[in-house]
Structure formats: C-alpha cells, structure tokens
Design brief:
This protein is an alpha/beta fold and about 280 residues long. The protein has 2 domains: about 190 residues, no CATH class; about 60 residues, no CATH class. It contains 11 helices and 8 strands. The strands form 2 sheets. It has a 4-stranded mixed β-sheet with strand order 1-3-2-8, covered by helices on one side. A 4-stranded mixed β-sheet has the order 6-5-4-7. Strand 5 and strand 6 form a beta hairpin. Helix 5 packs across helix 7, helix 6 crosses helix 9 and helix 10 packs across helix 11. The chain is globular and about 55 Å long. The relative contact order is 0.12. The C terminus is likely disordered.
Length: about 280
C-alpha cells in the first residue's frame, strides 16, 4: 500500500481523518466512500507482520488469543476456534492506517477483547434476539472504553460524521432503560432492545451492509436457518452439512467454554467424545 507515514502518530481525530483519506485516495480509484477496506490494496506480508507486531506491542495478548487478517471485513470482529482452542481477533485492511491513530486502534482491540471476556463468541442466543445481539453486546462493552476513543474508531471505520451510537447514554434511554455506566446484564438489555424494535413502525428493511463471511471447513458447526449443522463436505462455494440437534449444539458450546476455562474434566470428556475436533463459527463483532 502507498502510505506517507506521519512523523509521529496522531492523537486527534480530525487531523487523522484528513491524513487517512489522503492515503485512501492514493490507493483507491474512483469513489473512496462506503466500505473503504474492500477497495484498499491487500496487505503485503511485511505490512501484515507490522500490524500484528503493533497489536502485540500495544496490547497484552493472552496465549489463547490469535490475530487474523480479514481483507473482506469492514470492521474488527472476534470468534472462537475450538479445533485450536483459541480465540481470534480479525482485522480489516484499514487497520493498517488506523495504527497511526493509536487511541482508535487500541479501542478496537479493547472492544474485541470485551466480546471474548464476556463470552459473546460462544454464547447461545435465542433466535428472536439474533438480529440485535451484537448491538446489545456492543453497548455493554463500549461502556468500559473511553468514549472519545470509540467515537474516533467508529467515525473512521464507517466514514461517519457523528460518534458511535452503541453507547449507554444513547442506546439505553432509547430502549427505555435508565443509563447504567457499567452496562445492563445481557438478559435485561436484550429484552429492552427487542421490545423497542418491536414497537417501531414496520418499514421496508434497508439494504444489508457488507458482511464478512468466512468459508467453513469440514467439521465446522454452522447455523442453517434455525438449526445447527456440522459441515461434512466443502466443494467451492457448495457446503454440505448434517443437521445437529439444537440441544447438542447448546451442550457443545457449554462444554467448550469449560474447556477454554481449563476444566480438566471437561477437556478429557471433550477428547473422548470427539467434541475437541469440532469448530464453531459463532462470531462476535
């Protein structure tokens, strides 16, 4: 990527955004608005090494958390891979530029660590809450991140003129909840958000934003409609799967959470039953 690196990292959002879009214009032909990260050239091996080194130098990464480059993603996201017994934080192409605004870059990593620590990557969600779960989780996580930093990250990733709306003082009153700086429990917030959404006048759904979808591999557990299934064959874009009983899927998530927490009995049971060889693609973002 063609980048004129600044003499020193930025600490204010407006100067950074001006520099950021100057770099985008050097690397993208035509319209530079919208999902910028898909339009940017992919990282070179050296750029990938730089970004990963930067992340580990600026954040304390546990051994069970790995980094991944996700060139088709618009924002950062996190997930849990049971085959490797590791959590993964995935980074979009634009994160290379965002490292020059450390406050925003660190806020993004802190946010994904929040999903991991809260158990969002392995949490089972009632189907009726699926469309709002990330919104609710994001509000609770952002309650513990410096507001200016999360606003700066949001404005950069989504080319927004306003700050992040997924914060307690904006979201909770809208959902009919008093502002709670530490965030409400998932159960209370999910119900409040769901009831608020149900009360809105029905209207034509807007186009869905670009979503990064990782191609599953044999052994993955995926959600197909309202059921879980284990992938049995992958041929290009064609994925063949075998239905998994929902009770078994819930039990799988519970067991793997215990495995991650170091429960020796759960580890031995997972190995003996074959659970240890299955990958879940449930994600938080």
């Amino acid at each position: 990527m063609k980048i004129d690196y600044p003499d020193k990292p930025f600490d204010e959002v407006e100067p950074f955004k001006e520099w950021y879009f100057e770099q985008v214009e050097k690397n993208v032909k035509g319209n530079i608005r919208g999902n910028i990260t898909k339009k940017l050239p992919r990282w070179t091996d050296e750029e990938k090494k730089y970004v990963f080194r930067w992340c580990r130098a600026n954040m304390n990464f546990p051994k069970k958390v790995s980094l991944q480059y996700a060139p088709n993603a618009q924002t950062l996201f996190s997930k849990y891979k049971t085959a490797k017994n590791k959590y993964i934080i995935a980074l979009p192409t634009s994160f290379l530029l965002i490292t020059q605004f450390p406050r925003a870059a660190k806020a993004g990593l802190q946010h994904e660590f929040g999903h991991i620590l809260n158990g969002d990557c392995i949490r089972y969600i009632d189907p009726k809450y699926r469309s709002i779960q990330n919104e609710v989780y994001d509000v609770a996580i952002n309650a513990n991140i410096q507001r200016d930093d999360i606003d700066a990250l949001y404005r950069t990733l989504f080319d927004s003129k306003t700050g992040c709306p997924f914060v307690p003082d904006i979201a909770y009153p809208k959902w009919g909840l008093p502002v709670l700086d530490t965030g409400w429990t998932h159960e209370v917030a999910l119900d409040a958000c769901y009831n608020y959404k149900q009360s809105l006048p029905k209207r034509k759904a807007p186009p869905k934003p670009d979503t990064y979808i990782e191609t599953p591999v044999v052994g993955d557990i995926i959600r197909v409609g309202e059921v879980y299934a284990r992938v049995t064959e992958v041929d290009g874009k064609k994925v063949t799967s075998e239905k998994l009983d929902k009770t078994a899927a819930i039990e799988f998530i519970k067991r793997m959470k215990k495995v991650f927490e170091g429960d020796n009995e759960a580890v031995q049971e997972a190995i003996s039953t074959g659970y240890i060889n299955v990958i879940t693609t449930i994600q938080g973002g």
